[in-house]
Recover the amino acids of this structure.
């Protein structure tokens, strides 16, 4: 079982490197090619919001590359330095994707609401769950009685339950990200910001970005299995 999990882990790590490398290459490749309409990411984003009857969303610049995000709390779309004011295929695609999230929020998308409710708990669980499992394992290892070992086993179970929240969070995040990309691509085509060739390029960028969430989901699944296996290996 341990060997199987190590193999899975190596596969996921290799996949992660491939995905990250491909995303950076595609983003860089299409960051110098302007969209057919000549419109900037900001202009396209504002137009997409109007097309979907979404109002009250503001924009702000954020440092870094590919640090773009939508904040439902602030009703604000943050565009990275390489996106804000740029008219490249990459910039417009990324901005349209973030608008997709704003539309999900405005439309009350059920799965999106679930993810937002899970986000705080998932953030806490990701930081403490593994340490709780390790504490339980240490308790089990040092136990001199069956009852003491059961206490350690139960501590591990609590940690595993918490990490399950992390796994479920990534499980619902992936379809949300894919949906935001589909919304963005549909707007790019409908509004005529890009030609057919550029739309294919934008799809490559957005799907590569979405693949990072697929990797995160796979990583969390492997980690969950590993924690369960570690708990089982210490039980007498």
């Amino acid at each position: 079982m341990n060997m199987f999990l190590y193999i899975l882990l190596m596969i996921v790590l290799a996949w992660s490197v491939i995905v990250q490398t491909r995303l950076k290459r595609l983003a860089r490749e299409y960051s110098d090619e302007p969209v057919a309409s000549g419109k900037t990411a900001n202009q396209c984003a504002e137009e997409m919001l109007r097309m979907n009857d979404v109002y009250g969303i503001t924009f702000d610049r954020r440092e870094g590359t590919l640090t773009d995000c939508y904040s439902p709390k602030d009703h604000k779309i943050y565009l990275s330095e390489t996106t804000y004011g740029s008219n490249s295929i990459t910039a417009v695609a990324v901005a349209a994707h973030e608008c997709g999230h704003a539309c999900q929020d405005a439309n009350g998308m059920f799965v999106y609401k679930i993810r937002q409710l899970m986000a705080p708990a998932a953030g806490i669980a990701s930081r403490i769950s593994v340490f709780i499992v390790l504490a339980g394992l240490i308790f089990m290892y040092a136990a001199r009685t069956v009852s003491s070992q059961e206490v350690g086993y139960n501590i591990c179970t609590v940690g595993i339950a918490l990490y399950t929240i992390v796994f479920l969070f990534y499980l619902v995040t992936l379809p949300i990200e894919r949906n935001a990309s589909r919304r963005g691509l549909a707007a790019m085509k409908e509004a005529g910001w890009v030609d057919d060739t550029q739309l294919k390029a934008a799809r490559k960028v957005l799907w590569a970005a979405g693949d990072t969430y697929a990797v995160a989901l796979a990583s969390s699944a492997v980690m969950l299995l590993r924690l369960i296996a570690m708990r089982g290996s210490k039980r007498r």
In short: Residues 2-233 form one domain. The first strand starts at residue 58 and ends at 62. The chain has one domain: 2-233. The two ends are 17 Å apart (CA to CA).
